[in-house]
Amino acid sequence: MGVRSILMIAGLCVAPKMMSAQAGSVTFIDSAAVSAAFARGAPLVEVAAYKVHASRREGPGRAEVHVLDTDIIHVLSGTATLVTGGAVVAGQTTAPGEIRGDSVDGGTVQMIRPGDVIIVPNGVPHWFKQVSTPFLYYVVKVTDRRST
To answer: Could you tell me where the DSSP H helices lie in 10-92?
Structure first.
């Protein structure tokens, strides 16, 4: 019996790429499902108040600003050069509350490695300028609903 079948029997709704949690309920994600999510980099849970992503980077990313989401990052493997603060270069709104750009001008440069936890408050530009591969990390995105 597959993980999806077990979760369906347990009464949880599982989408192919993410699991939806219900308010007040406990969400259990089997280790096989977590491993599969890290293999491609995918959300594990996305609800109105928070998101949990099994993130994977094979190279540098675009600069990001989340207007409502605070990112809580826990590095599992690999290393990265993370730039926080400063200003996004060539920033454009890509979705409601989400800005992406080419890079970050200025800011604080930090080498991050397994075991590190980084908290990037909403509204703060951040950019994975350089990564070793694969770079795996959990991101918990806590949404500030006071701004909506």
So the answer is: 31-40
Provide mean pLDDT across the span 101-125: 98
Q: Are 124 and 83 in contact (CB under 8 A)?
A: no
CA dist., res. 139 & res. 69, Å (int): 11
My answer on whether 60 and 43 are in the same domain is no
Report residue 39: phi and psi, to 5°.
-65, -30
Q: Which helix (H) or strand (E) holds 139?
A: strand 135-143
Position 68 in a domain: yes
> Do residues 106 and 85 touch, judged by C-beta distance below 8 A?
yes
The verdict on residue 148 lying in a domain is no
* The model's pTM: 0.82
